[in-house]
Automatic annotation (TrEMBL):
Cited PANTHER family: ABC-TYPE MACROLIDE FAMILY EXPORT SYSTEM PERMEASE COMPONENT 2, MEMBRANE COMPONENT OF TRANSPORTER-RELATED
Topology within the bilayer: Multi-pass membrane protein
Transmembrane parts of this sequence: 21-41, 288-309, 334-357, 377-402, 423-446, 679-700, 733-752, 767-790
Main location: membrane
Localization, UniProt: Cell membrane
GO molecular function, one term: transmembrane transporter activity
Domain MacB-like periplasmic core: 20-234, 432-647
Protein name: Putative ABC transport system permease protein
This protein's UniProt keywords: Cell membrane, Membrane, Transmembrane, Transmembrane helix
Length: 804
């Protein structure tokens, strides 16, 4: 029987070769997109799965009620007291810098090593990397102990058994206590070396307000993180009582003004995608979910094509079904037969999609900067399950529809007069066009939003400004280094001017503190700088004056603020100038002498944050944290000037270190990359959707018009023109398209409005994409259907009327 069914199936595949190719093509494209996005999702979810203690380790996030904001950091006293007083806690680890770099020196050579971590003693209890040499016991106990990776050991010594060897960096001698091998699996915690920030920890031991550390807590087995979160509120109030006493207010007032007000623990293996805030990257589960949903929609569209084409072919198989029923075939047998025919096509598409996925994977990896390989059995299982689902969905509806034909009616030829198939096809075609319309509208709106961001006035000018980052920022006195280089590098041919600023557009690495005025307080970014840095990057002054090197007070307590700062306090510009505010990073009041126009430093997805700008000499710790120099280059010979700057830097400033530099405008442009990638992917998916939908429409219209060829012959005999016949055959499809687009409009409006809510600087919902979607789909529908309709007008009249 199976052999017989397969013969019938292949006869029908051959007879309806166009429909077969379209179904194969659509399902292959859909399944390929599904597998690629599924692999991307699976790769993102795989981070930290290697860790044997992952079920007990949680990343800490602090919650600030006033701003409804989650922070990714904690203070030393909060962490220490949580570990002592919350019974669910087994251990904790703090990290303060997860990207340091040093030039390390051995007896024979010096090597610049990047990706170092500064952390507390328990690090290797949380991250038990495979030990190659040495011992993890008391590995970070002293301030001169270091653990290094296998890669670092080979770079420095050419071998891995180097525990006990000495290293020199950061103006100190270190002893290597352990050599470890980093996991091959995905992880955000892959340090090339690990040291303990002894001095910083000592300075921050009693500082309840210094949120300078990332924190992981290890809970006891079976402990509920919600219990930790409830008990942590008591730890918060401990800090509030201490700080409130200093400020002369109640603990409740202090907690309301400054926070934090709560906490959140995220399992370490969910940190990459699902954390509210992360020290290591920005979680973006929403975008991934959107992409996955779109890939599933394409598979659904392919299934819709299958259903439509199968039901449209019903008249061709009506007599076959009638005969089979007449000789004793049951309804269940027919359903199984038709499902088997569908499965053969789906399985063939599955095999083709595996080959196509392997072919596209290198480009996909390059696009996402990944190294995904098709070695995970889950991918094959989930994609095959999708094949089964598609088989059932796209096969069961036409199978039930065809198996319900009555033998007597089909053998008499009455099937052609049944309208049930027409309603089913039209309904499914409408759904397909609704999805296509949503894709078109969404793609156009995303395109307009990205263009809007790229064209927006950023409030600064970063052209021709080259930033060079200091590699040895922790050595010596970096402000003196800057002041020396400012004079010396200005002499290099092609250099227009030299400057320094902390709040550099596009870097995203900014410190913030509370800003107090009477009983008001909020958080603001720091912008330590040289006197004329804001003029250097083209920021405009709105009120007051710039900082002046001739006024000694401008290096003591005078400051500039931006518009967002003024608005946060609810002042006017006139009210703000002359007022004194108390910043959390200093013990003295700062006087506002000028207000500058807002400019973007993070990205256009975020609103401009309040920023306070002050000279780097006003606060001691800011002087010691200066980390860059910026050079404006004359426009006539930029490339050669950069070469001269690089040569000078590597010869006279930081020999042996990499030349870490970038142009500010290009660095800021990287903040658009995520949205440009989203636009690219959406455009590709949009093209795939339209291609699948239009091919399905062409095949469906071909089958339906073929069923009307006798009507066409009669009308043509009675004198109907080609134009009248074409319009008559396409009118039904145009009405379906119109209805589908009208239904898609409110759906698209809601979905895209939700997407646009993520942007601080968003476009108003445009009307044009909705109108263009309607026009485009009507034109494409008419173009696709009219091709077959026009061919139908050239029908051989004798062939269809000789028996009438």
């Amino acid at each position: 029987m199976l052999n017989n069914w397969l013969k019938i199936a292949f006869i029908n595949y051959k007879k309806n070769w166009l429909s077969t190719i379209i179904n194969l093509f659509g399902l292959t494209i859909g399944l390929t997109g599904f597998m690629l996005i599924l692999m991307h999702w699976n790769d993102e979810e795989s981070y930290e799965k290697w860790n044997p203690k992952k079920d007990q380790i949680y990343f800490f996030q602090s919650y600030f009620k006033k701003d409804n904001f989650y922070g990714s950091s904690i203070t030393v006293p909060l962490a220490e007291n949580a570990a002592k007083r919350i019974s669910e806690v087994q251990d904790y680890v703090l990290m303060t810098n997860t990207g340091i770099a040093y030039k390390m020196t051995t007896k024979s050579k010096s090597v610049y090593i990047e990706k170092g971590f500064t952390t507390t003693d328990s690090f290797f209890n949380f991250f038990p990397f495979k030990l190659i040499s040495g011992d993890y016991k008391n590995v970070l106990e002293g301030g001169n102990d270091v653990a290094i990776s296998v890669k670092t050991a080979r770079q420095l010594f050419g071998k891995t058994n180097v525990a006990g060897e000495s290293l020199k960096f950061n103006d100190k001698n270190y002893i290597i206590k352990a050599v470890y091998e980093l996991p091959a699996e995905n992880s955000q915690i892959k340090p090339e070396f690990v040291i303990k920030p002894v001095k910083q920890l000592e300075n921050d031991k009693e500082q309840w307000g210094n949120f300078n550390y990332a924190c992981f807590f290890m809970l006891k087995k079976g402990a509920d993180p919600k219990d930790f979160q409830k008990k942590f509120k008591d730890i918060i109030m401990m800090g509030a009582k201490i700080n409130a006493k200093r400020a002369g207010i109640s603990p409740q007032q202090f907690n309301g003004l400054y926070g934090p007000n709560g906490s959140l623990l995220t399992p370490i293996d969910r940190l990459k995608l699902h954390a509210e805030s992360s020290w290591f990257s920005n979680p973006d589960f929403k975008s991934l979910l959107i992409l996955f949903s779109l890939s599933v929609l394409i598979v659904i569209l392919s299934a819709i094509n299958f259903i439509n084409l199968k039901t449209a072919q019903a008249s061709q198989r009506a007599k076959e079904i009638g005969v089979r029923k007449a000789i004793g075939s049951t309804k269940s047998n027919l359903v199984v037969q038709f499902l088997m025919e569908t499965f053969v096509i789906c399985f063939a598409s599955y095999l083709l999609s595996l080959a196509l996925t392997e072919l596209l994977l290198p480009s996909f990896n390059k696009f996402y900067e990944k190294e995904i390989v098709m070695d995970d059995w889950h991918i094959y299982l989930y994609s095959f399950l999708m094949v089964i689902v598609v088989t059932l969905v796209s096969g069961l509806i036409p199978a039930l529809y065809l198996s319900n034909f009555k033998a007597i009616e089909t053998l008499k030829g009455n099937f052609a007069r049944s309208k049930h198939g027409v309603w089913l096809r039209n309904g499914i075609l409408t759904l397909q066009l609704i999805i296509s319309s949503c894709f078109i509208i969404g793609g156009l709106i995303i395109n307009q939003q990205v263009k809007h961001m790229m064209k927006k006035d950023l409030g600064f000018n970063g052209k021709q400004i080259l930033q060079i980052n200091f590699n040895d920022v922790n050595n010596g006195k970096p402000w003196l280094k800057y002041e020396r280089l400012k004079i010396e590098m200005a002499k290099i041919q092609g250099v227009q001017s030299v400057n320094y600023g902390e709040a550099v557009p596009g870097t995203g690495n900014f410190n913030s503190s509370n800003m107090d005025y009477k009983h008001q307080s909020f958080n603001a970014q720091h912008g330590s700088m040289d006197y004329d840095y804001l003029q250097f990057i083209g920021v405009k002054l709105l009120k007051g004056r710039w900082l002046n090197p001739k006024l000694s007070s401008d290096t003591i307590n005078n400051t500039l603020v931006n518009e967002a700062f003024v608005k946060k306090f609810g002042w006017t510009n006139n009210e703000a100038v002359g007022r004194e505010i108390k910043p959390g990073f200093d013990n003295k009041p700062y006087k506002i002498v000028g207000i500058v126009k807002d400019f973007n430093i993070r990205s256009l997805k975020s609103e401009v944050e309040p920023i306070i700008f002050f000279h780097y000499r006003e606060t001691e710790w800011k002087r010691y944290n200066m980390s860059n120099i910026q050079i404006k280059i004359k426009p006539d010979d930029i490339a050669e000037t950069v070469k001269r700057i690089k040569k000078y830097w590597q010869t006279n400033v930081e020999p042996g270190y990499p030349f870490d530099s970038y142009f500010i405008d290009k660095q800021f442009a990287k903040t658009f990359e995520t949205y440009q990638k989203q636009l690219t992917l959406f455009t590709i998916l949009n093209a795939m959707v339209l291609m699948v939908a239009l091919l399905g429409l062409f095949a469906l219209s071909s089958l339906m018009i073929e069923q009307k060829l006798k009507d066409v012959a009669i009308r043509k005999t009675l004198g109907a023109s080609d134009r009248t016949l074409v319009m008559g055959l396409t009118k039904q499809f145009l009405w379906i398209t119109l209805i589908a687009v009208l239904i898609s409009m409110p759906i698209s409006y809601y979905l895209m409005n939700e997407w646009l809510k993520d942007f601080a600087y968003r476009i108003d919902m445009p009307v044009f994409p909705f109108i263009l979607s309607l026009i485009l789909l009507l034109v494409l529908t008419f173009a696709v259907v009219s091709i077959k309709a026009y061919q139908a007008t050239k029908v051989n009249l004798v062939k269809y009327l000789k028996y009438e």
